[in-house]
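Data availability (excerpt). The following record was deposited with the supplementary files.
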Amino acid sequence: MRSTHDLDTTDDDDVIDVTRVTARDRRRLTAVAAGVTAALALGGLSTVSAHGADSADSARSESTRPDTTRSEAAHITAETTPIGFGAGTTGGGNATATTVTSLDAFKAAVTGDKAKVVKVSGLISLTGQVDIGSNTTVLGVGSGSGFTGGGLRLKESTNVIVRNLAISKPRKPSDGITVQKSTKVWIDHNTFSADRDHDKDYYDGLLDINHGSDDITVSWNKFADHFKGSLVGHSDNNASEDTGHLKVTYHHNWFTNVYSRIPSLRFGTAHFYDNYVQGAETGVHSRMGAQTLVENNVFRDTEVAVTTSRDSDVDGYAVLRGNDLGGAATEISRTGSFTTPPYAYTAEPASTVVATVTAQAGTGKL
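Predicted structure:
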């Protein structure tokens, strides 16, 4: 099924005018039967490994599971190493840190493949993107350090960590972060933001992952006030490069007032768990044969939580379990086979996700 309702077309050529979305369009959205979505409500923390099984189902309904207080989620803390497909990423390791306060100093510090840790102090304006070399850790100082007007690019890099940066208003054609032909990446505890005051093409994506990139974890980030959140796989025509790659884990991220691409995934494999999606038109979008496991997430004020059947000629696949849909529809045309990620992880129940994520996602929490 093809639709002109969604913004998730291609990275470079979005042509949908969001002003054309009507109430009638929304009324046409329908939920697929529970047996197809295979949603399981988890009653407590479930530890899952490549060789383990999911915990028993909870009797509580997804749509009625309440939000919790922050104190109930206090036992969930940020990781010191990545969990998920990006596990094993070390960045600059124990290299002596260099602190920079200007764009020129930052560009010089992140160049090359030697192990390095670069701390950014203050908010730096830039146009375009700065390329980050391999074996690099980039850390923001405090809660407000980072970049505005443009962003970072990882191109043909490996073993890169980006943490605690405030990245705002990346003017097109620059994304907040672009990961291109790169492997072993951890993007953690950053705050990505723009505004919804301009048309959808005024800014580009907040976080885009493409051109056969692999083994990536996106965790504990806040994405706010934007049209195009996170695109994985830039084009329907890039199967030869992307098939078998684009393996990404998203966990404990907060998407608030982001219109779509939460994420939009082509060809790859995504594990989307313990995220909080608030105020979206469309959330997870699996297309072009992508396999997506959507687990223990919370959706609020969202039209369609998960879709596999929009905008591309080939549908994607999805498996849903343990989510609190909050009344959002789902459009699952094909149930996936990706049910057991090849790594150990702990998925907290949806009932504690809102408290945990809103308390701990974004900058200033490390």
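Summary of structural features: The longest strand covers residues 146-155.
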